[in-house]
């Protein structure tokens, strides 16, 4: 839908469909083979064109070109670091982009030695021996390494300060749990009362294609069904464009309860400001996005709504 497309420094001013001129409106859906008439700054229009013509297999573009595993040995249990490294390397091989392993607050020589063994032409190991401020170090690395995906452990994402820093970087985050990552077959998204899932839909399809995930959409049958039906229609259109099947599952109870009974999956959701709040403030909420931590035992991918 045109209404969910952020048009900053550019505008869709007309649509040609089957040789007929259509005027854009917030509720109008862009369909395959539509011709769009755009106006805006030349540099901006070039980037919009690349995004529209984008094919699957580009992620972590357009957020960046490399993958970044951040390991703070003060926050991550040493016993889980080796498994965290192996899962990050698996993601690196799937996405076919360079991996940077950043280690801060090193405290185990044996673990550092294990990490260094992964060094090769596509894997950089960067160890910060002196204590530095998380924000400055992290933001500098995002720019220097052109990072498009950050990988962290559950313990790190649970840390309020770390989570807020990740949000402010505007880069997708893969939060790894203790479950197997290589055996994941399904990617689950839970429809909410907003349209953010529509804004990140192309990225979700791209990730699902590269990782070989089946895409499952959970629809909690409560109020606001009109909004949700529009999002579902959008996903069906994308599924046709990308030749990928999707499964829509209707639930009469909060889908989080159903998902917690599954053996393994990856939960994909928009990375919005409300996720930076301390968990205690969402204990009584019915918003599935605010309750993301109820699925903390599973892998989760948080995708920024805006670049």
How helical, in percent, are the residues? 25-40%
| Individual helix count | 10
The total number of structural domains is 3
Can you tell me the overall shape? globular
Distance between the termini: 19 Å
What fraction of residues sit in β-strands?
Answer: 25-35%
Uncertain parts: none
In this structure, how is the largest beta sheet organized? 10 strands, mixed
Second CATH tier, the architecture of the largest domain: 3-Layer(aba) Sandwich
- Report the radius of gyration as a whole number of Å: 20 Å
CATH topology of the largest domain: Rossmann fold
Task: List SSEs in N-to-C order.
Answer: EEEHEHEHEHEHHEEHHEHEHEE
CATH class of the largest domain: Alpha Beta
According to DSSP, the number of beta strands is 13
Specify the structural class.
alpha/beta
> Mind telling me the CATH superfamily name of the largest domain?
HUPs
The pLDDT mean sits at 88
If strands are numbered along the chain, what order do they take across the biggest sheet? Answer: 6-5-4-7-8-13-12-9-10-11
Short note summarizing the structure:
The protein is built from ten helices and 13 strands. It is α/β, with parallel strands linked by helices and 307 residues long.
Mind explaining what this structure looks like?
By secondary structure, the chain is an alpha/beta fold. It has three domains: 2-52, no CATH class; 66-176, HUPs (Rossmann fold, 3-Layer(aba) Sandwich), CATH 3.40.50.620; 186-304, Rossmann fold (3-Layer(aba) Sandwich). It has ten helices and 13 strands. The chain has helices at residues 42-52, 78-95, 109-116, 134-144, 154-158, 160-168, 196-199, 201-211, 225-241, 255-259, and strands at 10-17, 20-22, 35-40, 66-72, 99-104, 123-128, 147-153, 173-176, 186-190, 214-220, 246-251, 266-271, 299-304. It has a ten-stranded mixed sheet. It has a three-stranded antiparallel sheet with strand order 2-1-3. Helix 3 links the parallel strand 5 (99-104) and strand 6 (123-128). The protein starts with 9 loop residues before the first strand and ends with a strand. 31% of the residues are buried.
